[in-house]
Amino acid sequence: MACVLLLLGCARRGVEGPLTETPDEVAEPEPLPVIIEPLKVVSVVPIATAREIPRDCRNPTEERCNALDDDCDGVIDDGCGYGTGFIQVTASWDTGADIDLYVTGPLGDTLSFQRPSTPAGARVDHSGRGDCTAMPNPQIENIRWVGQRPTGGIYEVELHYWGECITSGGPTNVTVSVAIARKIAAQYIHSLLPGERVRILRFVVQ
Ligand SMILES: [Ca+2]
Ligand SMILES: [Ca+2]
Description:
Number of helices: 1
Bound molecules: calcium ion
CATH class: Mainly Beta
CATH topology: Immunoglobulin-like
Shape: globular
CATH architecture: Sandwich
Distance between the termini: 50 Å
């Protein structure tokens, strides 16, 4: 096969031009690979009222859109229409309330539905409104960092009970998971009261 391809190549080149290579035909040197040091988790500190959700990957299950990495591949809710990245923070809740997720990075920039992206590549790619708005996955919020490696330092994750919408509300259990470099670094649940805003956890990466 190599000989056939060689012959075809010579024939084609013979039709189009001389056999000697012009400067344009000299292959560009391969670009050096971009080495990105993986993010490392230094610490995760939840508030006292948050309960850790045990992670058991001996028997992975089918992924569901629930802010948990059910299939244990390090991606939270893959296939649900929102994505992962260097960092992924996902919240899910169990009533029709409208819950909002806020993440503040080391530079003081806060991501939420109010500020859904930063020039550095962080973005809110799903913002659920509970029973307030008909939409896919209305009880999910997802924030992820893509593009540039996120800045090392302290990240603070907050939850805000925005409102009870039309139907069900009341105390609402909110699950929050954090994936860093495609590994689950934290998964907690916290009961949020109407109007409450809490910093459910902070984590440090480098
Ligand atoms: Ca997964
Ligand atoms: Ca899931």
